[in-house]
Design brief:
72 residues; alpha/beta; 3 strands; 32% helix; globular
């Protein structure tokens, strides 16, 4: 993930927005960084990374068309 995106998250995402909430990251395969490193320390109740194939940062493998069926 580009450094500017990571900095944007650090600057804009607050504890109140994340703490105790369920977070779903779509397209979570970690190639060069992940928003998880910024979001997880803010204390979500759950953080699930979804992508179309297994790999780093992927907790659940799902085709994009199945995401709403799986999560509602």
């Amino acid at each position: 993930m580009h450094d500017s995106v990571m900095q944007f998250l650090r600057d804009r995402v607050s504890l109140a927005e994340i703490s105790g909430k369920r977070i779903l990251e779509v397209g979570s395969y970690d190639v060069n960084g992940s928003p998880r490193s910024v979001i997880a320390p803010l204390g979500p109740s759950e953080y699930i990374g979804v992508d179309q194939g297994p790999g780093p940062g992927v907790d659940l493998v799902l085709d994009a068309g199945q995401i709403s069926k799986h999560f509602g």
